[in-house]
Amino acid sequence: QDNGFEQFIINYCNEKLQQIFILMTLKGEQEEYVREGIQWTPVEFFDNSIICDLIENSKGGILAMLDEECLRPGVVTEDTFLAKLNQLFAAHKHYESRETQNARRVTDPSLPPRCFRIRHYAGKVTYDVTGFIEKNNDLLFRDLSQAMWAARHALLRSLFPEGDPQRVSLKLPPTTGSQFKASVATLMKNLYSKNPNYIRCIKPNESKAATLFTPELVLAQIRYLGLLENVRVRRAGYAFRQPYGPFLQRYRMLSARTWPRWDGGHREGTEVLLAELGIPPEELAFGHTKIFIRSPRTLFDLEKRRQERVAELVTLIQKMFRGWRCRTQYQLMRKSQIIISAWFRGHA
């Protein structure tokens, strides 16, 4: 409920991760469509770069304004920092405070004084500026670093290389916000060079109890993890894609032409199967190696037909097995009866 400087930089990192998450998802979608020869349809999505720029812009971002206040001579308080933010972002649609709301003649009792609010991609978060300047200043003074470097312990010397007298710099030490910003930039550069796979863990309830599902808690996690954006991106293109071989193997039972045996290629079999099922052409796209289905409803219909067909086949197998078992039992009984009758007549 109470968000300070620590939560602010954590949420800034979350914004950057969300940005790369969406861009990587879009990039992966586009590359797969190009690879499969499918026409790419531009996808509309919320680009949170405006929020990232609000925080990290080197000339007029919140972190830059915070560093400027920390380095400014004279009496510096969080009130001057907040006043500067209010003046700079008065018209910004993702920033608001008590002063900017008053200027817009908006009354919001939920926004207390000495606070500002950012409309993050997942929702609004209110930050209390108390302690921002003190926590942003690097309090590890130069003389302390020199004292640690002068220690005889090798580990201490390695932890404070800036204390080496030969490396003494008259520059002010970097602020916490600038160090965190540089660290996030390094992380983003590393992630952009990789091919990431995302695993999202969702907590179903707060009490860690089995078989208990709290919809409100799960919905909040889905929203803040950015899964809605991911689903929106996937739904804007083709929601389902699968190689022709596994697809034909799973659904070939739905057509008399592909069941029980299909001797042609996987793609030809898939085209024959879907044409016989009467699926609209606009719902399908045939790539070089995969079949693409646009709407989940079409896939659900295929699964429903498959379940019904599986039930029919199971009934057929059961019928044939029961008939074979009864016929075999009848033949054994008839053979036994003939043998018994023959021996009885011979005895008589």
Highest-level CATH class of one domain: Mainly Alpha
Helix content: 55-70%
Q: Span from first to last CA?
A: 102 Å
Strands in their spatial order, largest beta sheet: 1-2-3
Number of DSSP helical runs: 14
Radius of gyration over all CA atoms, rounded = 34 Å
> Main beta sheet: strand number and arrangement?
3 strands, antiparallel
CATH topology category name of one domain: Methane Monooxygenase Hydroxylase, Chain G, domain 1
Rounded mean pLDDT is 87
**What percentage of amino acids are in beta strands?**
5-15%
Order of helices and strands: HHHHEHEEHHHHHHEHHEEH
* Helical/strand content category: mainly alpha
Name the overall outline. Answer: elongated
Low-confidence runs of at least 5 consecutive residues: none
How would you characterize the overall build of this protein?
Helices cover 56% and strands 7% of the residues. With 348 residues, it is mainly alpha-helical. Among the domains are: 153 residues, Methane Monooxygenase Hydroxylase, Chain G, domain 1; 26 residues, no CATH class; 61 residues, Alpha-Beta Plaits, CATH 3.30.70.1590. Strand 5 and strand 6 form a beta hairpin. Helix 1 packs parallel to helix 9, helix 1 packs parallel to helix 11 and helix 3 runs antiparallel to helix 4. It starts with a helix and ends with a helix. It holds the Pfam family IQ.
